[in-house]
Amino acid sequence: MTSKNTTNKLEWRISDELVAYPDALAEMEQRALDIHQGKAPELVWFLEHPPLYTAGTSTHKEDLLEARFPVFEAGRGGELTYHGPGQRVVYVLMDLNKRGRDVRKFVNNLEQWMIDTLAKFNVVGERRDDRVGVWVVRDGGKEDKVGAIGVRVRKWVTFHGIALNVEPDLTHYSGIVPCGIRGHGVTSLVDLGVPTTMADVDVAFKDTFPDIFDK
Predict the structure, then answer these.
(1) Which residue in 52, 55, 77, 132 could disulfide with 59, CB within 3.0 to 4.6 Å?
(2) 188 belongs to the catalytic site
(3) pTM of the model
């Protein structure tokens, strides 16, 4: 089941059932074209995928340790990552022609959006200059990744987006070197001791969105 809410020329969509990755890619491709042509509003799409790995344009073959799940060419920036149930994927399709043609600022905004959303759950998310995504510092100074980012821009319309670990099976990451980053782990809100629901996370994302993207 998919629910839609279109306000202020931006559509919010929540897919309750798992969305096959090829179907999501096809939907984003068409929607990005429609946005560029002025046929559809911008879209923020909340969903989950079945277990799979996606390979970005910077993927190194040696980072696929074991093909435990299907591997899809994503066409986005970045390297290998995992998607699966319990992870909130948010695809953000925006027209940077209307928001300023600044891809770096857009990526920075996505990072800040996750950081602000995590703060709603009293989790401190941080950036790292040498590592993409959002990180948390564990006891003893260990740093784990809690949120990933991968975007693509065509004709100044963005697609793909972010993935925040709410309660995925973290062992599923063992088949890859996530985002090509060695020496660090991955975590989730539940793993951090923050039991929550996907619906609560969606509310937090919506609450923090205007301060970042509606300025």
Answers:
(1) 55
(2) no
(3) 0.91
Q: Distance (Å, rounded) from C-alpha 109 to C-alpha 159?
A: 14
Confidence of residue 84 (pLDDT cuts 50, 70, 90): very high
Contact 21, 87 (CB under 8 A): no
Based on its alpha-carbon atoms, the radius of gyration of the chain, rounded to whole angstroms, reads 16
- Grade residue 3 by pLDDT with cuts at 50, 70 and 90: low
Phi-psi group of 38: left, alpha or beta (phi > 0 → left; psi -120 to 50 → alpha; rest → beta): left
- Six-digit token string for 188: 């989730």
What angle is formed at CA 97 by the lines to CA 91 and CA 101, rounded to 5 degrees? 85
Q: Which of 85-94, 113-122, 129-138 has the lowest mean pLDDT?
A: 129-138
| Encoded tokens for 120 | 């709603």
Q: Pick the catalytic residue: 94, 134, 164, 179?
A: 179
CA 213, CA 12: separation in Å to the nearest integer?
A: 14
